[in-house]
């Protein structure tokens, strides 16, 4: 798997498709880009080069627990730099859940690089505001306070990152627990400081200022309730709303893997949307 030094951090990436416009597609949560390989292959058949990558601190990329800015801002700037290094700008930018938030931040911080946005499974509302801060940050702060960096490395999430990139273990173990806790507490404060609806962490003024075409595909669980996406589509000036043949479920989260039967429908609509802009 190729990798690139992006702002001093080793970032693993994959390009699917060998010709056509670039489309950077980011997964949700802290999950590896492998989750989107199947969808990316379907989109690439429409004549696109789909860039997938593991954000820092996810998948097989390097773990770097540092930075005063919010982690999602760091991710957005990393993606912008990776696109520049690959000669892939301007590009279509898209993602699901946290990948959708990342896409909006790339547009906000690097507007010249973005031709259009594809936002899937928009995150917002009370369940997301309650669940995600713990899942992304507080559980690891608690692990570090209880067991130091050994405790952090023992968590299932960091075990995955160590297995995917064994060097991550020494990086983590060479950190002081106090430093790790301080960085994550800062990221947690930033993550919870913004609005929670319709798009968690994104101000309505930012949504209203998006001046490129946007395709929005709602989710169907309490973290990604369809109402979030519908409201976001009302706020974004050039948004197209595409609702899948699904209904909201009364569960905290539906794994993206459960959407596998919908991938053909999603890819066909994404291809139609992007081709309509070329």
Please give a structural write-up.
The chain is an alpha/beta fold and 278 residues long. It has 2 domains: 3-124 and 201-275, Alpha/Beta hydrolase fold, catalytic domain (Rossmann fold, 3-Layer(aba) Sandwich); 129-190, no CATH class. The chain is 44% helix and 15% strand. The protein has 10 helices and 8 strands. It has an 8-stranded mixed beta sheet, with helices on both faces. Helix 1 (37-44) crosses helix 10 (263-275), helix 2 (71-85) packs across helix 3 and helix 4 (126-154) packs antiparallel against helix 7 (177-191).
The number of helical segments is 10
Residue share in helix: 40-55%
Determine the CATH superfamily of the largest domain: Alpha/Beta hydrolase fold, catalytic domain
User: What's the rounded overall pLDDT mean?
Assistant: 96
Going by helix content, strand content and strand pairing, the class is alpha/beta
Q: Summarize the biggest pleated sheet.
A: 8 strands, mixed
Question: What key phrases describe this protein's structure?
Answer:
8-stranded mixed beta sheet; 8 strands; alpha/beta; single chain; Rossmann fold; 10 helices; 44% helix; globular; 278 residues
Topology record:
Blueprint lengths: L2 E4 L2 E8 L5 E5 L10 H8 L4 E5 L17 H15 L5 E6 L1 H12 L4 E7 L5 H29 L1 H9 L2 H7 L3 H15 L12 H5 L5 E4 L8 H10 L3 E3 L21 H13 L3
Parallel strand pairs: 3-4, 3-5, 5-6, 6-7, 7-8
Antiparallel strand pairs: 1-2, 2-4
Helix pairs in contact: 1-10, 2-3, 4-7
């Amino acid at each position: 798997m190729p990798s690139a030094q992006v702002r001093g951090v080793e970032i693993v990436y994959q390009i699917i498709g060998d010709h056509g416009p670039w489309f950077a597609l980011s997964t949700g949560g802290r999950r590896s880009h492998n989750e989107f390989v199947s969808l990316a292959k379907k989109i690439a058949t429409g004549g696109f080069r789909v860039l997938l990558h593991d954000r820092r601190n996810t998948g097989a990329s390097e773990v770097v627990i540092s930075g005063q800015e919010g982690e999602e801002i760091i991710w957005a700037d990393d993606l912008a730099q990776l696109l520049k290094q690959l000669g892939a700008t301007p590009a279509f930018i898209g993602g699901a859940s946290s990948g959708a938030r990342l896409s909006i931040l790339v547009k906000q911080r690097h507007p010249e690089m973005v031709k259009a946005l594809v936002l899937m499974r928009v995150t917002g509302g009370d369940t997301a505001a309650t669940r995600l801060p713990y899942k992304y940050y507080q559980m690891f702060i608690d692990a570090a306070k209880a067991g130091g960096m050994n405790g952090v490395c023992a968590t299932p999430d960091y075990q995955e990152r160590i297995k995917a990139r064994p060097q991550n273990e020494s990086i983590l173990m060479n950190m002081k627990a106090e430093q790790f806790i301080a960085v994550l507490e800062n990221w947690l404060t930033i993550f919870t400081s913004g609005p929670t609806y319709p798009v968690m962490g994104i101000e309505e003024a930012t949504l209203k200022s998006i001046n490129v075409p946007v395709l929005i595909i709602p989710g169907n669980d309490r973290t990604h309730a369809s109402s979030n996406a519908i409201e976001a589509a009302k706020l974004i000036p050039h948004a197209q709303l595409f609702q899948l043949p699904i209904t909201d479920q009364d569960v905290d989260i539906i794994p993206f893997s459960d959407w596998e039967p919908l991938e053909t429908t999603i890819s066909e609509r994404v291809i139609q949307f992007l081709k309509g802009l070329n």
